[in-house]
Each structure stands twice: as structure tokens, then as C-alpha cells.
Amino acid sequence: QRRVHGDILSVYFFSLTFSSSSHTMDSVKSGSSHLNYTMAALVTVGGIMGYARKRSKPSLIAGTAFGVIYAVAAHRSYSEPLQGHGLALGVSATLTAVSVKRYLTSGTPMVAGLAVLGALCGLYNGRKVQQLWI
Questions:
Q1: How far apart are CA 81 and CA 67, in angstroms?
Q2: What is this structure's pTM?
Q3: 59-123-100-42 Cα dihedral, nearest 10 degrees
């Protein structure tokens, strides 16, 4: 039952992200920054938790830096959607690459989850960039 629920959510997410309907600038702007604000909060809190649990200054610095960049990207998506989603796409790709590298050395499930989350966020923002570019 858990597997079916996850599959349904995956199909729903991808149908929203990769729908072929035409998008106006207003429909792309409205609500498109929520994911990036959520990522900003998640990676910032994750960095703080990494510091609190293991006194890891790199986790604190990286989590805060990625969080600030995601927040800037989300804010930019209101006035300049292409720039905002482009920045979020770049930070998502960087976060994914760094997380995959860390996962290969540490094998920690939390880092693997962060890599998957970064990749999904990158797919979403990449699709938004594609919609705005065309």
C-alpha cells in the first residue's frame, strides 16, 4: 500500500511538472516560487541541525548558503521569473552534485535524500525555465 501511494504521488508530481498545456506568464509566476521557498527553509534547517548534532561547521555554512540562494531565487521569480528559476536550477544542480559526492563517501541516507530532493527541485525549475524560454 505504501508503494502504491508513493507511485501515485510521483505520477501526480510529474503530471503537474511536465504537463503540455500552454502557460501564460501569470500562470508561471503564480505559486511557482513555493517550492524554492520550501527548499530554502529545508536546507537551512538541515544545516542548523547538522551543526547542532555534530558541530559540523561545513553543514551550517553550506545549509545557510544554499538556503539564502534558494530564497533569493524564489524572490526573483516574482519580478524576473526566468532569472529566478534559472538561479534555482543552478543551485539545485550544485546541491545535487555535492550531495551525490558526499553520499558516495559517507553512505548516509540523509545525504541521499538531499540529493534526490535537489534533483527533483532541479527538474521542476528546469521545466519552468523551458516554459519561460520558449
A1: 18
A2: 0.76
A3: 20
Q: In 1-134, where do the E strands start and end?
A: none
User: Cα dist. 77→57, 62, 70, 95, 107 in Å?
Assistant: 30, 22, 11, 19, 35
Q: Would you state the cell numbers that stand for residue 21, as one nine-digit string?
A: 498545456
Q: Taking a C-beta distance cutoff of 8 angstroms, is the pair 115, 103 a contact?
A: yes
C-alpha 101 chain-centroid distance? 17
- Supply 44's cell numbers: 537551512
For the record, the C-alpha cell of 94 comes out as 550544485
Which helix H or strand E contains 31, and what residues bound it? none
pLDDT in tens, 55-74: 999 999 999 999 999 999 99
At 73, the amino acid letter reads A
